[in-house]
Amino acid sequence: MIARGFTRNSKTTQIDHMIRKATLIFSSVVLASRLNAVPAFAIDASHPAGKVSPRLYGLMTEEINHGYDGGLYAELIQNRAFMDDTKSPVHWSVVSGRDSGANIALDPANPLNDKLTTSLRLNVSNAAKGSPAGVANEGYWGFPVQPKTTYHAAIWVKAAASGLGPMTLSIVSEDGSTVYAAGRIPQLGTNWNHYEVTLKTGNATPTDRAKFALTLEQPGTVWLGLVSLFPPTWNDRPNGLRKDLMQMLVDLKPKFLRFPGGNYLEGNTIESRFEWKKTLGPIEQRAGHQCPWGYRSSDGMGLMEFLHWSEDMGAEPVLAVYAGYSLDGKYVKAGPDLEPNVQDALDEIEYVIGDTDTAWGAQRAKDGHPAPFNLHFVEVGNEDWFDKAKTYDARYTQFHDAIRAKYPQLKLISTIANDQPEDMRVRSRKPDMLDEHYYSATDEFLEKSRTYGQNADRSGPEVFVGEWAAHEDAAIKPWEPGARKQPPTPTMKAAIGDAVFMAAMERNSDIIKMHCYAPLLVNVNPGARQWRPDLIGYNAISSYGSPSYYTIQMFSRNVGDEILQVNSEEKEIQGCATRDSKTGEIFIKLVNPGMTNVIVKIKINGVASLASTGTAVTLQGSPEDTNSINHPQNVMPSTATLRDVKAEFSHTMPPQSIVLLKLKSR
Ligand code: AHR
To answer: How close is the Cα of 395 to the center of ligand 1, in Å?
Structure first.
């Protein structure tokens, strides 16, 4: 998880920062006195400099920061299968009153099945009509109570003796005094039974200060094997995704989705890697597993959910397969030892795209999706440059040969880029693509982005920047406790770094074919997050985009298919330009990292005509400005009409701004 951008020593960064600051002060003084001598940003539209990759903008995802459980995956019950902790039923508590009592305990002697190997025993000692007792779940830092909303509960339960019931399921305020929605199971059986109950709220005032209670009105003992509760989901999919977060992701118009990680693919140990076969089928057959970010994953987000998720966004899956290396440094030796892992990857690909007369293609059809998914890219592992034993070349080769032989149409991605030592990289085969990761301070991106991509070997392999993000301060490592004292999502200062780096990738998108910011999601509650900054923040009931989110949205939704050559005399302003070959629309992206207005003279040559009006979208703020749950729209793009557009025109960029100009040309 150590990312390359942070290898730079912090002293150098500090000195850079001072020089930069001095340069900014100097340039603002100069600018103030030479506003007429505007530097030019010249765009050559006479012929495209290259083709923009059709898959340039995508999403990277993994289970980190409660990104799935307690995040995008809409399940509301935390520790729904009671397996998060082997010692106690964490996130569950007893519900009792003055005249009622109960106790709860884990009971591995009464499991629901061989996957969910414990249950929760609820022993109600004292209860009556009007004074119930039972158990409650605290949710993922609360429950989202919305008015006139239907919630679907599913529970697996058995009673010690017949005649027990009803059991009431309710969403209630934290103190239990307000019932927002309730449903009932009239009678419980003495064998494991599965019940589905619908709960509907009335005119409730939205809140997340709620819990989910299961109560009895008479003494008795029951075992709960699994308790699940879903709000309405995106596209109404069962076991589906949270609607507000999906809307935000769809709004980014991603062309691909990289999953399931990241470190989540590898696991801390070989045993805790992401095992896709264990994530298929009904939720009561999914045991979950320990994720490398310190908590247990329910595996509710399984392979099929990832595939549906991609499809629902109109994005292609970029499937990362486990390549025999885990974060504790252990690896599976290439050769016969690695064969089962290679076969597992082949099976996984077959599940995604195999015909329905293949074993795993048939399983996919059985799981509800007979048509193959739109898979073109398979990544072999994640960040294998951490493998100090330098076994990646041999491991990659084995995967490469097996996948290539069976699926010659797929493009294969190596996780080691060309800037890593030769003896770490893949030498025995030529991968189609190399995955590069950059977590860098904004100041570093401001420097790096001037030349990034220019010198990439155009004969390939192509480049996939599978993880990147600008951070405000390189001295604070994103995974260290210090980072968690800062707001979970980035500030405007970071967005400036993101913008210059994206402009560089767009200028070179003939060879930089795909990129995605990481991490994507963060549950902002203390205790829920392990990394900062993250693109989108949320709690149980609301969500917001960071300035970086809106920056990516400005870029990804406004890109042509032709790269236009840009020659800039301007030292501070960085940018890029593309054109839609069908409509002639030109998209110019400019970044002003300075603290003063800059008037940029834009020169466009090689167009027959330009419409005199266009659109300017601006994202601007002080370096420390940001968005949050309580102030979700503090930094937002604003749109204005551009007038007097011609082959040479000037545009004033406010301090610390990211500007998108949309011009109509022929
Ligand atoms: O994005 C967070 C982590 O950073 C990823 O899991 C890992 O691939 C990288 O080191």
So the answer is: 21
Q: Which atom of ligand 1 is nearest to the CA of 3?
A: 10
Tokens of 529: 């997050």
Strand order in the sheet with 543-545: 521-523, 536-538, 543-545
- What separation in Å is there between the alpha carbon of 262 and the centre of ligand 1? 5
Please give the C-alpha separations between residue 615 and each of 558, 567, 585, 663, in angstroms, as whole numbers.
Answer: 12, 22, 11, 7
Q: How far is the CA of 1 from the centre of ligand 1 (A)?
A: 5
- Which amino acid does the sequence have at 168? T
Q: Tokens for 622?
A: 């002080």
Q: What pLDDT, on a 0 to 100 scale, did the predictor assign at position 311? A: 98
Instruction: Name the stretches of the chain with pLDDT < 70.
Output: 1-39
Structure tokens at 562: 């032709």
Residue to mutate (ligand 1; options 382, 515, 516, 536; most atoms within 8 A of CB): 382
Report pLDDT for 38: 60
Q: Are 300 and 291 in contact (CB under 8 A)?
A: no
Cα–Cα separations (whole angstroms), residue 19 to 7, 34, 574, 592, 666: 20, 22, 18, 17, 43
CA–CA distance, 103 with 99 (Å, rounded to integer): 14
d(C-alpha 293, C-alpha 64), whole Å:
6
CA angle 524, 528, 534 (to 5 degrees): 50
Whole-model pTM over 0.70: yes
pLDDT tens readout for residues 71-83: 999 999 999 999 9
Note the pLDDT of residue 36. Answer: 42
> Looking at residue 39, what is its pLDDT?
66
Strand intervals (E) in 569-613: 574-579, 585-592, 598-605
Q: Specify whether the CB–CB gap between 494 and 442 falls below 8 A.
A: yes
Cβ atoms within 10 Å, residue 343: 11
DSSP designation for 77: -
Measured CA to CA, the distance from residue 361 to residue 346 in angstroms comes to: 12
Q: What gap in Å lies between CA 169 and CA 176, rounded to an integer?
A: 12
- 521 contact partners, CB below 8 Å, separation of at least 6: 61, 65, 67, 71, 72, 245, 534, 535, 536, 538
Region of 494 please: left (phi>0), alpha (psi -120 to 50) or beta.
alpha
470: phi > 0 → left, psi -120 to 50 → alpha, else beta; which?
A: beta
- As a whole number of angstroms, the distance between CA 448 and CA 474 comes to 14
Residue-wise pLDDT tens digits, 111-129: 999 999 999 999 999 999 9
